[in-house]
Amino acid sequence: MIIKIDCNQLLRRSCKKLNLCSVLKIGEFNKCKLLLNSSSIEDLLIYWYLSKINNNWTSIKINTNKLFEEVLSLSGMRLGIFGQKNKVISPKWCWLLRLMVCNHNIYICINTRLACCNIRKLVGLKEILSNKSWITGVRVAQSEFRKVNKTILWDTMHNSIKLSPILLWNINQIINCIVCNQLSYNSIQNIGFSSIGCSPCTRSIKHNEHSRSGRWWWESFNKTSSECGLHRY
Ligand code: SF4
Predict the structure, then answer these.
(1) What is the pTM of this model?
(2) Which residues contact 218 (CB under 8 A, 6 or more apart)?
């Protein structure tokens, strides 16, 4: 039986008091069985938490065919450790062919770049996430766009509930949890890749830069444009 939750009422009352476990419990009640796992430290942390609860969920990974080797090998390693159900989504070849035929250049402008994100990420995700509740590791500190996110949100793009259990966590909380529990993470994180996307679109950052400024850096970074389109409202 699906327990329906009045999300707005819940948010009004206690959004700030919800901790990671209680949000994941709400997800469990609502048959939320999908974790969108980009292999960021945030997603890896939730992956680990979920693994401690039960095995009734699936980790969704998007393989855009442009990922770093380190990300691919970490994903493979995690399969061995936790033995969870893992589903990899790849873009359809006919769409990739279309990008190739028109010599698609992601560096020309934001629209060409978003077209690539759409084909390599969003189209496949839409098929998987439509009408199904899902979990994500986004945090408000990551960008201006994410500040309007909610811990529990009705996702109009996919017609489903979207849970962001660590939305209000800061980066130190995440790192402490990763270190204390000796969780594996991407090795390139140690050399300045604080937010890891596709290899042509991610660079390392310096200490004084915003954590997502390495993503689509040529788009004269501002905190509102550094998105692929999935977490925009
Ligand atoms: S991040 Fe870059 S390579 Fe990856 S899908 Fe978006 S534009 Fe394409």
Answers:
(1) 0.84
(2) 107
